[in-house]
Description:
This protein has helices at residues 18-31, 53-64, 115-124, 136-141, 158-161, 183-192, 204-212, and strands at residues 4-12, 35-41, 44-51, 73-79, 87-91, 112-113, 129-132, 142-144, 148-149, 173-176, 198-201, 217-219, 221-222, 229-230, 240-241, 248-249. The chain is an alpha/beta fold and 286 residues long. It folds into 3 domains: 4-91, 2-Layer Sandwich (Alpha-Beta Plaits), CATH 3.30.70.100; 112-219, 3-Layer(aba) Sandwich (Oxidized Rhodanese, domain 1), CATH 3.40.250; 238-286, no CATH class. The longest helix has 14 residues, at 18-31. The radius of gyration is 19 Å and the shape is globular. Residues 274-281 have low confidence and may be disordered. InterPro entries: Rhodanese-like_dom, Rhodanese-like_dom_sf, TrhO, TRHO_N. Residues 124-217 form the Rhodanese domain. It is an enzyme of class 1 (oxidoreductase). It holds the Pfam family Rhodanese.
Amino acid sequence: MANILNIAAYRFVELDQLPELREQFRNKTAAHKLKGTILLTPEGINMFLAGIPDELEAFISWLTADARFADIEIKRSWSDEMPFNRMLVKLKKEIITFHQPGFDRTAHPAPQLPASELKKWYDEGREFVIVDTRNDFEFQVGTFKNAVNLQLNTFGDFAAATKQLDNYRDIPIVTFCTGGIRCEKAAPYMAGEGFNQVYQLQGGILKYFEECGDTHYDGECFVFDKRVALDGELKPTATNICFACRTVLTPEEQTSPDYVVGVSCPHCIGKVQSSTSTMAGNSTSV
């Protein structure tokens, strides 16, 4: 039975005195023996944490007792092992880097579309365009049926890539990502650029899996920790990652003689040197 609780959560809220706040979070996560990453920024908080259920729930109680975080939406999943290597509390300029100076996500709000409503749209055959705001390698692991792949290398490429969507300015567009945070900027940006009906999937793929399973979804959902990918039941899959080149590997690719853990895979054999660096287990995009 899985005995490690994992949470993903974010909240856009004005924060100040960040160095002092960082120390509070460092002390509290250490007291509860948690691992993962917390980003503290002037525009809010983003975090991925894992730990013993009682300890993590105690941390959540402490967090939500603060009025700034009282309404934070927390997505829970389970794993057999700790998916993070260490505990990091970082100070950043943005929750998610967007490369759009002066952008105000509140200037052109985009409504959130509940998971159940997206499923209903699919079920009814409603006309809409669904846009994956994640990186291309995440898209390749799994995505919603008929999703548009903008072939992003990083989320900072999103603004320029929206030119690919010019023919859909008057059609309902649903943006989505892993947990919702990228769409908190992507959807308002599109609304400000003249796209007339832009929505953001509430809670992202993880919330959709929680409420609707993998109906209308093909493949798995990549996550930025040692679990690598989750299925529609929010359970880790056999998908893995090459420690040498960080390419996502299917179970079939892992049977190749070119796949040597920490050394090479079919994608990088002969191209990279052996690496024992840790994987992107404490990355922060959702």
